[in-house]
Structures are given as C-alpha cells and as structure tokens.
Amino acid sequence: MVRKRSTEKTADDFIEAAEKDASWKQEEPPVAVKKVAKTQAVEMPADTKDRVKARAKASLKRGIYTIQATESQKELMNYAAEQLDISKARLLERYFFTALEEEFGNDVPITKEA
C-alpha cells in the first residue's frame, strides 16, 4: 500500500511556517564593522633565528594562505618533511618564514595580541 501525503496544507502555509523562525534571514552587521584585535609591540631580537621564534610565539596561529603547487612540488615537500621527520606545516615554518625574516624581518614589527 502506498501512503500519500496529506494535501491539507498549501504551499503558502509551508512557506509561512518556514519563515517564522528564519534565523538565517536575520540581518548581519555591516562589513565596515569588524572586530580588530588589540595588539602591542614586542621587542625585536637582532638575530634572524630569534626573530623567527619571537614572531611565531607572538600570538595564536591562524590559516593565512593556501599554497598552490605542482604535483612535483608537493612530492618534494612530502619527501623533505619525511626526511626531517617533521610536519609539512613545521617545514614551511622552518624554511619559508626564515627566508622572509632574513630579507624583510627588520622592517616589520613583531606584534602580540593583547
């Protein structure tokens, strides 16, 4: 035996009931209103390795960028991480941020979230 749905309610009744608690339709704050983290400057170490460490410890880590790479570059990264017995994230921290710190680190202050 096939059960049929009751057609007592109309489409308008359904829409009305759905819109009563439409929390997804509530207005969002304007884009211009953003929460800005309070920051404070941290003393800049002179040595590159010390600056890398200080900058890494200055605040919580966040996803900052997705790296696009070829399959060959991906394999190179996987191999290097395996050889050094570290994660790919740690590999990027070690080589990418060290290179940036050497070239540009003196020009960018280290800030710590308050």
What's the short story on this structure?
This protein is mostly helical and 114 residues long.
3D architecture notes:
With 114 residues, the chain is mainly alpha-helical. Strands 1-2 form a two-stranded antiparallel ribbon. The chain is built from four helices and two strands, in the order αβαααβ.
Any descriptors?
mainly alpha; 114 residues; 45% helix; two-stranded antiparallel ribbon; 7% strand; single chain; elongated; 4 helices
Write the topology of this structure.
Elements: H1 11-20, E1 39-42, H2 48-57, H3 71-84, H4 88-104, E2 110-113
Antiparallel strand pairs: 1-2
Helix pairs in contact: 2-4
| Main structural class | mainly alpha
DSSP strand tally: 2
Helix content: 40-55%
Low-confidence stretches: none
Could you tell me the radius of gyration in angstroms? 26 Å
Distance between the termini: 67 Å
